[in-house]
Amino acid sequence: MPANHEVVRFDIEAETAAEFSYAQANGVLLTQYWSVVDADGFMVKDPDIATGCDVDANVVYKFLEPGTKQRSSVPIIAPVGATTLRLSEQGHGWEWEIPAAAEAPPAVTTPQVESPVEPTVQEWTPITTTVAQNPVDSRPNPYPNSQDSFGRDTGTSGATLVGCGDWSEYQPGTGIYSDGSLDYAAECLPGGSMAPN
């Protein structure tokens, strides 16, 4: 967790019309359209998803389908004291107030007591195990100097792979990363360890 940041969770339910008037409407809830406003009034666009929490972020990671209902609970990493959650594009959209966190009671400190007994040092021998590597997962990125879906050089965002794009919507090998970007991932190829069924 970055310094001065906290996890803010929002729940979302989306119901789509039987047919989209605009094809681009299927991506309206993707992470790139979300932002938070911090305590000083500065906007932080495309906040990171707290993937270490129990994450059900399909609605913000994947394109919507016509005539469906979806529900997600999305934990984002926001600056401490953030006041507003926004879903917007070029000044149009919605915003919601982020309630202030309840004040935590002051921590009780226990005085340190010195022990007259010397600590014992236990020696240990590390155990090394070899895990068979999936040969598909070990394939290198076949696109040198490639960029992710936000135009950044591959590997520079520091995001972690959280899933694979549905093959009916994405090319096999398309990975979905914790910052919402899309890029190649060998794990998402046919036979890869995270490939969709």
Describe this structure in words.
The protein has 197 residues and is mainly β. It has one helix and nine strands, in the order βββαββββββ. Strands 3-2-5-6 form a four-stranded antiparallel β-sheet, with no helix packed on it. Strands 7-8-9 form a three-stranded antiparallel β-sheet, with no helix packed on it. The chain has a two-stranded antiparallel ribbon with strand order 1-4. The protein is globular. Mean pLDDT is 74; it is low at 124-132.
Question: Could you write a compact summary of the structure shown?
Answer:
With 197 residues, this protein is mainly beta. It contains 1 helix and 9 strands; from the N terminus they run βββαββββββ.
Task: Kindly list the characteristics that best describe this protein.
three-stranded antiparallel β-sheet; mainly beta; four-stranded antiparallel β-sheet; 197 residues
Oligomer: single chain
Largest sheet: 4 strands, antiparallel
Q: Give the overall shape, derived from the CA principal axes.
A: globular
Strand line-up across the major sheet: 3-2-5-6
Strand tally is: 9
The stretches of 5 or more residues where confidence is low (pLDDT under 50) are: 124-132
Share of helix, binned: under 10%
User: What structural class do the secondary elements suggest?
Assistant: mainly beta
pLDDT averaged residue by residue: 74
Strand share of the residues? 25-35%
Radius of gyration in whole Å, from Cα? 22 Å
Element order: H for helix, E for strand: EEEHEEEEEE
Number of helices: 1
Through-space gap between termini = 32 Å
